[in-house]
């Protein structure tokens, strides 16, 4: 009630009338200056552009003048979006920003989805930036943790992508956006190429709220292959000396898939995809889901599931999905971003992917996240830690990787109003007693992994390190990736736990312990209760699903190497050199 | 397990290897034809464009040829998005589509957010269209109900906007989009004007998945004021004989606001906005929320709340908000669409609204719905019926109005990971026992209205007519607008019920009955339990909040007429003639 305490007694009608009329009078007197006094943002924007114009020929600024341009356009304390995506990086502009004169540019509030380049954090070390709101920081996760503990970064929040994009339009609107594109024409029309990613969203929020948009481009051309961003939303173009940095984040070498992962993939296909009839879905980027993609044309084909499952995806162009696509499993894929080496394959498979008039992929993270939220019936992915309530996190006390899209896709959209078979079946399992027309469905949210992950670190823990981190950093929310009450299934090599069928917190805990294998969490199970959960079908072992663990053989993979994927693609997929061993 | 039953026994590794290699061989043999056989959509799109080209000069087709164009481009059974927004209508194209030769165009699957014009339903009467997936049908709600009962329409689902947009990218991608814009240049660049609304979303889903985009425009110009849609996403332009239809849906005449609505507005401001400190929010379009907007500069000012509440909105340009804006309450507004008559005011208040380089509003329904979902702490709106569990619906057995954005904004986003004071406070009230760092917040979802609404129809009912409708139409989901477990507060002239503080279904029911006034639901309350809920602060009467119902006087409204709003705007707001009585 803090706000209320400050307030006077309730107003009387006469007082109110006076204040209303007074305000109206002031307004009428000020009528004349309104046009100027209510367009301060517009005026400031024009001043920023004018300040930068001296360095530009038309909209084009030479790379060597990039830092001076940023010094001219950016003001201390500005909210700046330095793109900063999951894959594509405006690396030239990040280096240019790092070099600014601190007397002119400092204490910036960075609002960018990806904190990926060392420069992104150097900005905070140098004092160019002060506050951070972000979504993903994979490669910088260890350093960002150290800097948060060291107080080098004032943390706003760790968001899921769509959540950060939402705030761009409400309370985190950028003053300046520093973006990356493949090419620009002299008017400033931009071609992003396949990695459109966040760019249209960042530009829309900035350009239409009196902000300034500066783009680095790989080249300036007479005519762009397609217009991803119209020229009138872009104020300055910097031609880069080399192409922007983009990382192949979604390439999983089939050669690295273990038989344990193959077993979990078999359990998922036969124990979840098949009985729920999951057709619209998103896959995480782990090896277990890559194994699922590679088992569809073999194990899935034999189960007669072609056309019945995994037909529509919200997914990046995973190379591991090539065999399933070539075998006719996949009807349509909408993508958040692209993947290095997949360009020619995508171009030749336009029936499957979203492509532009130029033939190359058009990705869009905002729309694909929206699709993952509202139009998919399942999210399946991996995590680092799962606790006894089923809460999971990729955050540890030494690594703050961020969440990316998992929180958005790893929960049921309560605004959803269209039914589908998998969604209704999951809802009925969770809530058998509600009257059908009032019973909501549930999105399938599946966590898949081996009980002991990388370096034999147990997947299951009594307490998430994320909670310890929250206490240390005094965060109001522990950085949980997916909350236990949103998870519907957990799959490990020991079996499949259907949490939708658990009726008490205790059953839930034992269902989790019951698939936690030889981890401490697994060994502390209540054997009788786990046995009874298995009888009820809450826990299902491989044999319960007619799967012989000995059949979990690498030869089940439709492709066993990157080279196999190239072959499947008819030579259209050209993997980055780091994945080539031939 | 239906799918599983069809399946053979699990494959052996050797079988799998054979199938994998076989598939790979087939692929290699077919390598040559890949380029064609996987681009059927692209080829079909080119054929559609070629078929229409004969009627076009460049991309421009005369209005008289519109029907022939649609006959040339559209195929039987196509998924067609006929825009079809909340406000803006591609009316010329809807008339043109209605006139097609049924031997060439029929059985279309309409996927459009708004079913607003009579022609939208005439299409089904004539057999041009067969199946419908939509989100909102305000003015056609009675007829659409009759046609559903009559089997004239095969219903997909009634969505919330963002949900339908999501499906555009997964399983409801349009083959053809028929859209509306203000102007086009000869290349086909489009200017939507302030009512951008759904257009960028519809065009993105269609143009980048081998679809055809046809735009009706009010005029063809040398240069568009700004590029809302780039030319390479648009195949045909039809110049309309008159401007597209757009309805002023968000204009509420202050003269029509009742003292009962003013009282509910006072209760909401002092009982919810103030104690939670709600700054980021969305308002529904009812008169009670219009009253809240008009009380901010008077009642709100006296409570000392300026700057502490209602600073950032996801909201259309409501004329009723003008006095609050002029009084310095509102920092920023992002809009779904625009509002007739507000153009000059918005242009002159660019500090508040999102505007383009041309100075006019840039709205965007997809991004504003995303903002309402993830970046707002409160949704407050009205409904037609509320049942004993708190489920609400605007659907009755005789009217199926659709949900628009309410389901999306009227629920907590479970993917949300950023804290805010109101969200955390609501979460703590709902779940006081969870450990803080693992406790999630809750969005405030408020239903506000008088116990007896239009024509003295009671707001509270024992059973929603939506359930009856679901039974009659054999729908798998009753058309519930907002589910009871998502509602946090109900406000009527009798008082305020905080459902977050209810611990049992029974308490919840009595809290609802306790503010249901003299409706049957209200009269059947358990007086002792209601008294005890009031002692606990679950129910709060006006006097509990220091509000004297006699002060709920129309003179509290900052503007009491449309003319007052014009005066507040300094003459910048020019209301449509139907709202002018001077």
Structure, described:
Two copies of one chain form a homodimer. Chain A is α/β, with parallel strands linked by helices and 582 residues long. Chain A has three domains: 1-53, no CATH class; 55-246, Glutaconate Coenzyme A-transferase (3-Layer(aba) Sandwich), CATH 3.40.1080; 254-568, Glutaconate Coenzyme A-transferase (3-Layer(aba) Sandwich), CATH 3.40.1080. In chain A, strand 1 and strand 2 (60-61) form a beta hairpin. In chain A, helix 5 (66-73) packs across helix 6, helix 6 (91-98) packs parallel to helix 7 and helix 11 packs across helix 12. Chain A starts with a helix and ends in a 14-residue tail after the last helix. At the A-B interface, helix 1, helix 2, helix 4, strand 7 and helix 9 of A face helix 1, helix 2, helix 4, strand 7 and helix 9 of B. Chains A, B: InterPro entries: MadA, NagB/RpiA_transferase-like.
Structural class of the secondary elements of chain A? alpha/beta
Greatest interface and its residue counts?
Answer: A-B, 154 and 152 residues
| Number of helices, where a helix is a run of at least 4 consecutive DSSP H or I residues of chain A | 22
Percentage of residues in helical conformation of chain A? 25-40%
In the CATH hierarchy, what is the class of the largest domain in chain A?
Answer: Alpha Beta
Pfam families (chains A, B): Mal_decarbox_Al
Region (Disordered) (chains A, B): 411-436
Protein name (chains A, B): Malonate decarboxylase alpha subunit
GO molecular function, one term (chains A, B): transferase activity
């Amino acid at each position: 009630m803090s706000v209320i305490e400050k307030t006077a007694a309730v107003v009387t009608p006469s007082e109110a009338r006076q204040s209303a009329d007074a305000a109206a009078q002031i307004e009428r007197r000020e009528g004349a200056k309104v046009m100027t006094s209510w367009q301060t943002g517009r005026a400031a924007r024009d001043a920023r552009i004018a300040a930068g114009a001296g360095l530009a020929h038309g909209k084009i600024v030479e790379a060597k003048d990039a830092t001076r341009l940023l010094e001219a356009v950016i003001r201390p304390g500005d909210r700046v979006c330095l793109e900063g995506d999951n894959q594509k990086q405006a690396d030239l502009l990040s280096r240019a920003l790092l070099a600014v004169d601190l007397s002119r540019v400092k204490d910036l509030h960075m609002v960018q989805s990806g904190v990926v380049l060392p420069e992104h954090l150097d900005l905070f070390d140098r004092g160019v930036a002060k506050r951070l709101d972000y979504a993903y920081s994979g490669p910088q996760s260890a350093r960002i943790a150290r800097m948060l503990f060291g107080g080098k970064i004032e943390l706003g929040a760790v968001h899921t992508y769509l959540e950060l994009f939402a705030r761009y339009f409400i309370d985190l609107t950028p003053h300046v956006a520093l973006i990356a594109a493949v090419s620009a024409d002299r008017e400033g029309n931009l071609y992003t190429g396949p990695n459109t990613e966040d760019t249209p969203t960042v530009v829309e929020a900035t350009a239409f709220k009196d902000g300034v948009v500066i783009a680095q481009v790989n080249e300036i051309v007479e005519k762009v292959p397609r217009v991803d961003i119209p020229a009138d939303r872009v104020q300055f173009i910097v031609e880069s000396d080399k192409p922007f940095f983009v990382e192949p984040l979604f390439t999983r070498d089939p050669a690295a898939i273990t038989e344990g992962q193959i077993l979990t993939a078999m359990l998922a296909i036969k124990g979840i995809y098949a009985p729920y009839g999951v057709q619209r879905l998103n896959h995480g980027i782990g090896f277990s889901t890559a194994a699922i993609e590679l088992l569809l044309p073999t194990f899935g084909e034999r189960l007669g599931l072609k056309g019945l499952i995994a037909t529509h995806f919200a997914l990046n162009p995973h190379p591991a999905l090539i065999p399933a696509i070539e075998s006719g499993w996949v009807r349509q894929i909408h993508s958040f971003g692209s993947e290095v080496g997949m360009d020619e394959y995508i171009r030749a498979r336009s029936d499957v992917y979203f492509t532009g008039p130029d033939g190359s992929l058009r990705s869009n993270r905002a729309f694909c996240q929206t699709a993952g939220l509202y139009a998919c019936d399942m999210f399946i992915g991996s995590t680092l830690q799962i606790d006894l309530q089923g809460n999971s996190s990729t955050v540890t006390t030494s690594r703050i990787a961020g969440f990316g899209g998992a929180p958005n896709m790893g929960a049921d959209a309560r605004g959803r109003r269209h039914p589908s078979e998998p969604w209704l079946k999951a809802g009925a399992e969770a809530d058998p007693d509600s009257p059908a027309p009032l019973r909501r469905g549930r999105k399938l949210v599946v966590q898949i992994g081996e009980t002991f992950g990388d370096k034999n670190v147990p997947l299951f823990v009594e307490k998430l390190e994320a909670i310890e981190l929250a206490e240390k950093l005094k965060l109001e929310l522990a950085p949980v990736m997916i909350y236990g009450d949103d998870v519907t299934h957990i799959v490990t090599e020991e079996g499949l736990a259907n949490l939708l069928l658990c009726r008490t917190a205790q059953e839930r805990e034992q269902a989790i312990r019951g698939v936690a294998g030889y981890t401490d969490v697994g060994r502390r199970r209540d054997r009788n209760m786990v046995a009874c959960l298995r009888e009820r079908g809450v826990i299902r072992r491989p044999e319960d699903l007619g799967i012989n663990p000995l059949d979990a053989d690498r030869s089940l993979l439709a492709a066993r190497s990157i080279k196999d994927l190239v072959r499947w693609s008819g030579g259209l997929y050209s993997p980055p050199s780091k994945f080539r061993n031939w």
